[in-house]
């Protein structure tokens, strides 16, 4: 229970501190720190925990007026269908092979975090039919990736919303949390239907995440000038964890590939 609370607190803290990245650590923490025995159970349990924490943070952004409601509902609704399809496909893939692919995605996320942010402000486009269709298309692809790997997908959703609509970054972050929560819930329910969620661990993880999130948001307000440095440090942590995940799962992945050949 202590390891679940502390691991959930670390995930929530990172989300509150730098606005993302914590969900990508949930599965490795559940597997290698808490000791969840099966990769699929770790993915299902982590998806549920990330979902609940995302919904909690979404309420705060909504009260602050940082949500574009029409875009948020379109992205969450269409993307949830993609998450259901992606998570169904993910359950069919061998757990160790899925972990290996997950490690590769972690490296990609770390690289994206280190990319310099654009200096110019995009012009927000009106929410007409064209913008809605673009938003729906981006949401479907993002939702499928989120469901397949069992991640919240915030690092995909935020740039996806900016690309589709041109909305300000703070609005994309606030609006994305509805999609992160919806994607995670769809993935968790799909895994739960197959008995692949550890409910006790999930609730302990969520409790730790709520406390960690509050602490992270408070620290973020004090250290706002140093967020770029914090992001680089966190990206470094992701690279280290990704290397460990790849190391642990490479044997099964490569062995399976050699057997198939």
Automatic annotation (TrEMBL):
<protein>
    <recommendedName>
        <fullName>Probable membrane transporter protein</fullName>
    </recommendedName>
</protein>
<feature type="transmembrane region" description="Helical">
    <location>
        <begin position="199"/>
        <end position="217"/>
    </location>
</feature>
<keyword id="KW-1003">Cell membrane</keyword>
<feature type="transmembrane region" description="Helical">
    <location>
        <begin position="12"/>
        <end position="34"/>
    </location>
</feature>
<keyword id="KW-0472">Membrane</keyword>
<feature type="transmembrane region" description="Helical">
    <location>
        <begin position="134"/>
        <end position="158"/>
    </location>
</feature>
<dbReference type="InterPro" id="IPR002781">
    <property type="entry name" value="TM_pro_TauE-like"/>
</dbReference>
<feature type="transmembrane region" description="Helical">
    <location>
        <begin position="67"/>
        <end position="86"/>
    </location>
</feature>
<feature type="transmembrane region" description="Helical">
    <location>
        <begin position="41"/>
        <end position="61"/>
    </location>
</feature>
<dbReference type="Pfam" id="PF01925">
    <property type="entry name" value="TauE"/>
</dbReference>
<feature type="transmembrane region" description="Helical">
    <location>
        <begin position="170"/>
        <end position="193"/>
    </location>
</feature>
<keyword id="KW-0812">Transmembrane</keyword>
<comment type="similarity">
    <text>Belongs to the 4-toluene sulfonate uptake permease (TSUP) (TC 2.A.102) family.</text>
</comment>
<dbReference type="InterPro" id="IPR051598">
    <property type="entry name" value="TSUP/Inactive_protease-like"/>
</dbReference>
<keyword id="KW-1133">Transmembrane helix</keyword>
<feature type="transmembrane region" description="Helical">
    <location>
        <begin position="98"/>
        <end position="114"/>
    </location>
</feature>
<feature type="transmembrane region" description="Helical">
    <location>
        <begin position="229"/>
        <end position="247"/>
    </location>
</feature>
């Amino acid at each position: 229970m202590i390891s679940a609370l502390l691991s959930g607190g670390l995930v929530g803290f990172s989300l509150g501190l730098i606005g993302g990245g914590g969900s990508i650590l949930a599965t490795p923490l559940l597997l290698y720190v808490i000791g969840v025995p099966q990769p699929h159970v770790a993915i299902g349990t982590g998806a549920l925990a990330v979902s609940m924490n995302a919904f909690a943070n979404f309420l705060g952004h909504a009260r602050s007026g940082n949500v574009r409601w029409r875009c948020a509902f379109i992205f969450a609704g269409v993307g949830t269908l993609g998450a259901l399809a992606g998570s169904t496909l993910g359950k069919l893939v061998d757990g160790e092979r899925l972990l290996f692919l997950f490690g590769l995605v972690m490296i990609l996320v770390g690289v994206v975090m280190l990319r310099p942010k654009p200096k110019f402000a995009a012009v927000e486009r009106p929410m007409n039919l064209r913008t809605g269709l673009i938003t729906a298309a981006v949401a479907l692809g993002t939702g499928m990736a989120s469901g397949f790997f069992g991640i919240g997908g915030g690092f995909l959703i935020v740039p996806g919303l900016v690309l589709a609509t041109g909305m300000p970054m703070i609005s994309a972050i606030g609006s994305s949390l509805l999609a992160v929560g919806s994607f995670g819930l769809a993935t968790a329910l799909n895994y739960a239907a197959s008995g692949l969620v550890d409910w006790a661990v999930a609730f302990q993880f969520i409790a730790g995440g709520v406390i960690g999130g509050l602490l992270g948001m408070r620290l973020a307000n004090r250290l706002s000038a140093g967020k770029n440095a914090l992001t680089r440090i966190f990206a470094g942590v992701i690279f280290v964890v990704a290397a460990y995940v790849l190391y642990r799962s490479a044997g099964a992945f490569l062995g399976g590939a050699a057997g198939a050949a």
